[in-house]
């Protein structure tokens, strides 16, 4: 492979102000302007050259923002996120463009983020990768299955994964293998592609140094055997790891300043005038050269070394090493000329040998379409079985809901009184099968990155996986729909004939799978989950409204009537209702006139008061009823079946095509975002940094901005010593007890920096969590003491815990985040001004003055990884942790320059008096020297060593050498040496049982004696009869003042906590324009759509029904708003759970109250817009009886409903682990309360058993209050189809004949003086219609009170569910004991 003068460009956007609600119009203008006015181009890579021959490995090094990721992606042909690329990249003389078109799987790129199906096991994941790349011709002619099995076992053994083959891969929500093991799965999967060129972006992230070295060695063996080329960007490579690579290239601000052998690079830069620190690895030395703050210049070379990237490039291009590279380039160019036909034919021949028969000639895939389909189909079934709980819940839902729906319409009468119920049941069944597929949206988003990655590996066509996924689900969906249909069909007592049953089932099934295709298509075409949820939610509105039942086609307005013609639900609804009513002659239950005084009236003088009835008939034709009411015809059934099948095929094809051709979301040019009012964006060097298009885990500066000099750190020094002794931690996994920590002991003193290292899975993070009191399950035994006394309630408040994950609110600035922590975690006796002044000191100490007012953002679009890590550390420092600071892998995922910066900062903290305990994975020798003390854990959570490190780690290495370990080379990395000795690698074993060695050592006895000495004061106080707890908690400070009580949980008052949390939530909401604008557009668009669907409804019976459905649909619209709210709430909840609860920032009740209040003002404004958009088009005001006061009352009820559905969504979300589950739970509950509100099935027709559900449903009272207020005393005017015609006896007028009956039933007679064709309308005033559906004008205020009561219930439920989630459900109900136990 060779590349010459490679340049890559992205949009230069610089910095910008943060968007919020007030910037919506300016943001729209900027977006529109961007259509014709492009941003200027920024050159990211400046003419990069390189050449690699067969079997060579290249190491890419560079500081933050140097362009390492951009170079890797460009060499791998993945340049979709960039605006322009120049230069030539050739593989064996063939351009990278042609390679990606024809041989895409031969050049692959591995990012730093793991993307796997979490429900699959490790073995299944690797087996699929092996099968997808199994060649057609195999050694010894073994079968494809045997080949895949052997490859899987070989790769699994090489990376120490054999023991995990039956364990699920897992993710953040599904328990699976550890993070390090998951990383190994990612590496193994890519190696199975057998690609000729592999590009690795930080493949060793999260791995210990021994496992990282084993990975590089395996890669070395693979390249040697196959002659392939490997290119890796590593962040903190050790010396042994770097030496495995043949070549190294060094990037500096997008410029190349070296390419050649790594030893020659050290000599080159040393001759230039730079020198390395003692024990500094070559990689660290090279990266330090690109950082003016870290580079060390030899004496006498201060004015001779280059000062910037351009000077480095000038010297590089005039060097002998550059000429040597050009010579190698020319040599390869001679061997493999541009577009060399021999090379191209050789690759084609190799590909032909690998390809299976019936594969297209120009296909980049190894397998043909049929075999791709078979392996993805098999994986689909494995996913189904792996995620069986979800599908079991889905199947259970499809059994429970039809029982509810069927029993709601139980045994519908055969007479005409059952007409409305039959139509309602059919409509609601279809509606539920539309709503239940709403979960397909999130499912599509979850699998998108996995499919995109595997497609880049040329494993299979995405459309094949889409079809296979559907085929896997179709049988299960058929089973679910069959059960659903059978239950609801027979319980509701629809036609007891086989044909109608199967037709009912067929249409329901086709609609269900059609919605799967539709929702998956929408989810594929958009780039964000919020947009997808909003679009799919809005799509459900026309599907439901224009199904032909809510508003019949004759009543549809022309501007929206066309929707019914492209709505598959309409065709299914028409067919199902036409079949159900076909041939039905329903006996009439009410003849007009009838009753007292009409006992002897002849049938010829009566008519049934049902649409479709004919004078003189005691029955109603079902065909006439559906024809006149809905314009449905039985002759359309088979046509509709064909149309529905066509829709299914169409949506399946669109889903497959969207997956196949929709390009991954382009990486945006990233930038710093400042608050509009901040001065931070104008400080310093003028133009804030610009960032290139890099992976989100990296820092992306292109213009180096020298960080401000850090101020000296001044913290409150503590004299407290924290120790632990005989610490054990036991849990149960699938009923089997397992000990994760086994008699661990140690201590941490003020002013010391203690490292915690060990093998992957040895229990490092577990020990940290146990010591920090952050575990909520299992049994902990042993002692944890401060100055010899048990831990008190203030322990968590007095300690800081820096997690490995940098979890922050994306909308907040750095300064605001720090102030929030300081305000709530420093004591209430400290003035706020003093707290904020301390925040500024910490900002200066962190060197973040330029970035203090920048928005933190997300990992994809925000501050760099190093800055986010500094923020995580700063959050704990501003709290003034007087006792201890815990850190979990603070340098993981950072480059060596950033890691050095972080560790130096921690060293300064320790020197200032802070006690620090820190886990670390891959420490370099220079980083390791920063530590004072070392705790080594061996497998099984046992202590292998605890004690001082000593100069150059001499004390620790001497200990292991004395007990049988080989001598440590003076130039070796002591940390790597110790990890190798204890067997930390994936395939390594320990040289001895170091846990037993430690127990018998004098060092262990010395530690035990020291811990006893720490406990001695407590024992002495106890002997003297003193209250040691009081002595610990109440002490006199040096100035003679009594210290604050340390027995309280929180540092500040409840009201201080509440106002701080409430302010932060309002700031977050205001700065979330996507969320609020989505709510606004849903309210405005949905309100207008519903309003103009039911535009200026008249006062006919159908008009009253349409107004009822207008209310019903506005309720359904709010389901979309709920789905938008819950993910945001869960993000805040997770932040509280992960950090703020354990840190004792604020009481859990403030979280609940603040989250309720923050939604109210925004809902008030936005929902008022939605109300206006709905109220006036429907025409509620057009009747003189509906005064403005009534309209105001309807608005008031609507506002109550906004509070109701918000608190309802919040309460449901608190019991769910993630947004997907919350959405499913919400749909289930919403289905229940929508079903029993009297709209679809009136109370009079409802089975008595379910009457309680009618009264329990809050929507009953909501619909009642709004309908009674909007239609009270409004006269009814029946339409022509609704007027029933009957003939009076000869000699009598209509009024004389039927006047008494009309007056007694509050009906209307339109021609009382006529002597024939009497026109009867069964409702004369809207109140009689309302009475028929159990609605009364007199109950409107009572109904409003009920809504208020439901809101109070939701709030109480929110409190309860959040408390249960935060404290463990079992602890709420009592009798089950606490999950967290201590012995």
Automatic annotation (TrEMBL):
Pfam families: ABC2_membrane, ABC_tran, PDR_CDR. The chain crosses the membrane at residues 388-413, 419-439, 474-492, 498-519, 531-551, 637-659, 1074-1096, 1108-1125, 1146-1172, 1192-1215, 1222-1243, 1344-1363. Residues 23-278, 716-964 form the ABC transporter domain. InterPro entries: AAA+_ATPase (IPR003593), ABC2_TM (IPR013525), ABC_transporter-like_ATP-bd (IPR003439), ABC_transporter-like_CS (IPR017871), ABCG_PDR_1 (IPR034001), ABCG_PDR_2 (IPR034003), P-loop_NTPase (IPR027417), PDR_CDR_ABC (IPR010929). It comes from the Eukaryota. GO terms for cellular component: membrane. Keywords: ATP-binding, Membrane, Nucleotide-binding, Transmembrane, Transmembrane helix, Transport. Its main location: membrane. It is found in: Membrane. PROSITE patterns: ABC_TRANSPORTER_1, ABC_TRANSPORTER_2. GO terms for molecular function: ABC-type transporter activity; ATP binding; ATP hydrolysis activity. It is a multi-pass membrane protein. Gene3D superfamilies: P-loop containing nucleotide triphosphate hydrolases. PANTHER family: ATP-BINDING CASSETTE TRANSPORTER. Belongs to the ABC transporter superfamily. ABCG family. PDR (TC 3.A.1.205) subfamily. This is ABC transporter domain-containing protein. It comes from Lophium mytilinum. The lineage of its organism: Eukaryota, Fungi, Dikarya, Ascomycota, Pezizomycotina.
């Amino acid at each position: 492979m060779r590349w010459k003068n490679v340049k890559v460009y992205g949009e230069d956007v610089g910095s910008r102000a943060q968007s919020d609600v007030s910037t919506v119009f300016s943001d729209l203008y900027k977006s529109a302007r961007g259509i014709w006015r492009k941003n200027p181009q920024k050159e990211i890579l400046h003419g990069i050259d390189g050449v690699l021959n067969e079997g060579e490995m290249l190491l890419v090094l560079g500081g933050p923002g140097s362009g390492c990721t951009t170079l890797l992606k460009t060499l791998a042909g993945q340049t979709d996120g960039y605006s322009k690329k120049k230069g030539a990249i050739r593989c064996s003389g063939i351009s990278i463009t042609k390679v990606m078109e024809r041989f895409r799987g031969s050049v692959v790129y591995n990012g730093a983020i793991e993307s796997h199906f979490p429900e699959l096991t490790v073995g299944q994941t690797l087996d699929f990768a092996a099968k997808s790349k199994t060649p057609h011709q195999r050694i010894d002619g073994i079968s494809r299955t045997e080949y895949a099995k052997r490859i899987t076992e070989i790769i699994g053994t090489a990376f120490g994964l054999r023991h995990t083959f039956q364990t699920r891969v897992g993710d953040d929500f599904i328990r699976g293998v550890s993070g390090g093991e998951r990383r190994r799965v990612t590496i193994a999967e890519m190696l199975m592609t057998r690609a000729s060129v592999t590009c690795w972006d930080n493949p060793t992230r999260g791995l210990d140094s021994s496992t990282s070295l084993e990975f590089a060695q395996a890669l070395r063996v693979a390249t040697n055997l196959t002659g392939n080329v490997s290119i890796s960007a590593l962040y903190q490579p050790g010396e042994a790891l770097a030496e495995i690579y043949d070549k190294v290239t060094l990037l500096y601000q997008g410029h190349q300043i070296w390419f050649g052998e790594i030893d020659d690079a050290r000599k080159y830069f040393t001759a230039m005038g730079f020198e390395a620190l003692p024990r500094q690895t070559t990689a660290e030395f090279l990266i330090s050269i690109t950082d003016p703050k870290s580079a060390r210049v030899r004496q006498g070379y201060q004015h001779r070394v280059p000062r910037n990237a351009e000077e480095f490039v000038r010297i590089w291009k005039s060097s002998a090493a550059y000429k040597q590279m050009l010579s190698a380039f020319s040599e390869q160019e001679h061997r493999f000329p541009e577009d060399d036909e021999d090379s191209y034919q050789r690759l084609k021949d190799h590909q032909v040998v690998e390809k299976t028969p019936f594969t297209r000639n120009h296909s980049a895939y190894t397998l043909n379409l049929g075999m791709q389909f078979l392996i993805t189909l098999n994986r689909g079934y494995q996913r189904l079985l792996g995620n069986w709980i979800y599908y079991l819940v889905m199947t259970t839902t499809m059994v429970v809901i039809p029982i509810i729906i069927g029993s709601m319409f139980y045994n519908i009468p055969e007479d005409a009184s059952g007409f409305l119920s039959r139509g309602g049941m059919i409509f609601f069944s279809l509606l539920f099968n539309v709503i239940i597929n709403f979960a397909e949206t999130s499912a599509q988003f979850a699998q998108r990155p996995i499919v995109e990655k595997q497609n880049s590996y040329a494993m299979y066509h995405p459309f094949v996986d889409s079809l296979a996924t559907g085929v896997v689900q179709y049988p299960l969906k058929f089973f679910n729909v069959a059960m659903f249909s059978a239950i609801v069909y027979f319980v509701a007592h629809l036609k007891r004939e086989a044909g109608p049953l199967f037709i009912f089932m067929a249409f329901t099934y086709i609609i269900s799978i059609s919605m799967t295709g539709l929702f998956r298509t929408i989810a594929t075409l958009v780039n964000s989950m919020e947009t997808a949820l909003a679009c799919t939610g809005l799509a459900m509105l026309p599907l439901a409204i224009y199904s032909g039942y809510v508003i019949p086609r004759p009543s549809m307005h022309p501007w929206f009537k066309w929707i019914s013609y492209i709505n598959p639900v309409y065709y299914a609804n028409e067919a199902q209702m036409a079949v159900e009513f076909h041939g039905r002659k329903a006996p009439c239950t009410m003849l007009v006139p009838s009753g007292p005084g009409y006992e002897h009236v002849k049938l010829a003088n009566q008519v049934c008061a049902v649409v479709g009835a004919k004078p003189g008939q005691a029955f109603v034709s079902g065909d006439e009823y559906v024809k006149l009411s809905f314009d449905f015809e039985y002759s359309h059934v088979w046509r509709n079946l064909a149309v529905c099948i066509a829709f299914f095929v169409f949506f399946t094809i669109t889903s497959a095509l969207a997956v196949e051709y929709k390009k991954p979301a382009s990486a945006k040019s990233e930038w710093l975002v400042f608050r509009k009012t901040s001065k931070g964006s104008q400080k310093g060097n003028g133009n804030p940094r610009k960032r290139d298009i890099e992976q989100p885990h990296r820092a992306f500066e292109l213009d180096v901005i020298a960080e401000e000099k850090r101020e000296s750190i001044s913290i409150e020094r503590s004299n407290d010593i924290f120790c632990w002794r005989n610490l054990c931690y036991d849990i149960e996994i699938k009923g089997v007890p397992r000990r994760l920590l086994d008699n661990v002991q140690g201590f941490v003193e003020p002013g010391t920096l203690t490292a915690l290292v060990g093998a992957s899975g040895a229990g490092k993070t577990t020990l940290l969590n146990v010591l920090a009191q952050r575990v909520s399950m299992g049994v902990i035994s042993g002692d944890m003491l401060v100055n010899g006394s048990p831990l008190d309630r203030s322990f968590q408040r007095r300690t800081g815990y820096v997690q490995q994950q940098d979890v922050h609110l994306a909308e907040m600035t750095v300064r605001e985040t720090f102030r929030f922590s300081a305000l709530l975690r420093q004591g209430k006796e400290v003035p706020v001004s003093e707290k904020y002044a301390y925040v500024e000191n910490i900002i200066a100490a962190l060197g973040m003055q330029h970035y203090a007012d920048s928005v933190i953002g997300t990992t994809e679009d925000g501050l760099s990884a190093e800055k986010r890590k500094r923020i995580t550390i700063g959050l704990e420092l501003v709290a003034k942790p007087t006792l201890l600071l815990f850190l979990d892998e603070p340098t993981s995922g950072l480059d060596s320059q950033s890691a050095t910066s972080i560790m130096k900062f921690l060293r300064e903290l320790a020197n200032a008096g802070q006690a620090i305990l820190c886990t670390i994975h891959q420490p370099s020798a220079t980083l390791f020297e920063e530590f004072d003390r070392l705790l080594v854990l061996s497998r099984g959570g046992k202590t292998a060593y605890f004690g001082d490190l000593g100069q150059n780690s001499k004390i620790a290495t001497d200990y292991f050498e004395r007990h049988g370990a080989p001598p440590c080379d003076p130039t070796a990395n002591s940390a790597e040496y110790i990890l190798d000795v204890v067997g930390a690698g994936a395939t390594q074993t320990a040289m001895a049982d170091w846990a037993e060695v430690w127990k018998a050592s004098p060092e262990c006895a010395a530690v035990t004696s020291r811990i006893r000495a720490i406990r001695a004061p407590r024992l002495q106080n106890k002997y003297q009869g003193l209250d040691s707890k009081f002595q610990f908690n109440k002490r006199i400070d040096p100035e003679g003042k009594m210290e604050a009580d340390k027995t309280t949980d929180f540092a500040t008052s409840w009201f201080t906590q509440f106002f701080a949390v409430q302010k932060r939530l309002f700031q977050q909401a205001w700065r979330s324009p996507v969320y609020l604008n989505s709510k606004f557009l849903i309210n405005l668009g949905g309100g207008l759509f519903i309003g103009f669907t039911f535009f200026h409804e008249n006062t006919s019976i159908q008009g009253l029904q349409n107004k009822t459905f207008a209310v019903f649909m506005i309720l359904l619209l709010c389901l979309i708003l709920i789905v938008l709210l819950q993910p945001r709430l869960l993000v805040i909840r997770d932040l509280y759970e992960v950090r703020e609860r354990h840190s004792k920032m604020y009481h859990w009740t403030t979280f609940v109250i603040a989250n309720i209040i923050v939604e109210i003002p925004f809902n008030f404004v936005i929902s008022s817009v939605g109300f206006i958009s709905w109220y006036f088009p429907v025409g509620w005001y057009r009747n003189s009886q509906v005064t403005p006061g009534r309209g105001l009352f309807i608005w008031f009820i609507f506002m109550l409903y906004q509070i109701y559905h918000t608190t309802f969504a919040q309460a449901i979300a608190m019991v769910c682990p993630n947004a997907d589950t919350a959405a499913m739970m919400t749909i289930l509950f919403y289905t229940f309360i929508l079903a029993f509100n009297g709209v679809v099935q009136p109370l009079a027709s409802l089975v008595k058993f379910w009457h309680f559900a009618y009264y329990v449903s809050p929507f009953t009272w909501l619909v009642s209050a709004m309908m009674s207020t909007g239609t009270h005393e409004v006269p009814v005017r029946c339409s022509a189809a609704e007027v029933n015609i009957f003939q009076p006896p000869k000699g009598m007028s209509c009024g004389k004949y039927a006047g008494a009956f009309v007056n007694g039933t509050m009906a209307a007679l339109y021609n009382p003086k006529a002597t024939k064709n009497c026109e009867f309308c069964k409702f004369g005033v809207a109140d009689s219609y309302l009475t028929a559906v159990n609605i009364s004008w007199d109950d409107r205020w009572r109904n409003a009170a009920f809504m208020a009561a439901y809101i109070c219930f939701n709030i109480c439920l929110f409190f309860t569910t959040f408390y249960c989630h935060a404290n463990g459900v079992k602890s709420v109900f009592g009798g089950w004991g606490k999950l967290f136990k201590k012995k």
